[in-house]
Amino acid sequence: RSRGVTLATRRGSPIVAPASGTILFAGPFRGYDGVVIIDHGRGWRSVLVNVGSTAAKGSKVGIGERLGTALGPVEVQLQHRGTPVSAAIIAGSSALLSKARQSG
Question: From CA 80, how far away is CA 41, in angstroms rounded?
Fold first, then answer.
């Protein structure tokens, strides 16, 4: 069951980081040929499913930086402290993933 947004990407399409962070995992996982997990700090993580990537665990990635290529339709999940968060938040407020201090 999907817990994110599935993008109708074509195999070979470039995939970029949705926000800056540290690569926690990149490679095959269970029944998937490619999974990339990015830690954005403060409990936030992005999980990209169906992405081929050679990113090394622990490497830093900037927002919009190329991660790899689509292996077909790509699923993007957002998690906060391990709990899936509505994908609507991705479109509505990228400031939540920012490492800058928020006021208010």
Answer: 10
Structure tokens at 96: 């939540």
pTM value? 0.81
17 token code pair: 């980081």
pLDDT along the chain (104 residues), means of 10: 79 95 96 94 95 96 96 93 78 50 42
Which ranges of the chain would DSSP assign to H, the alpha helix? 88-92
Q: How many degrees, rounded to 5, is the angle at CA 100 between CA 37 and CA 5? A: 35
Residue 37's DSSP bridge partners are 25, 47
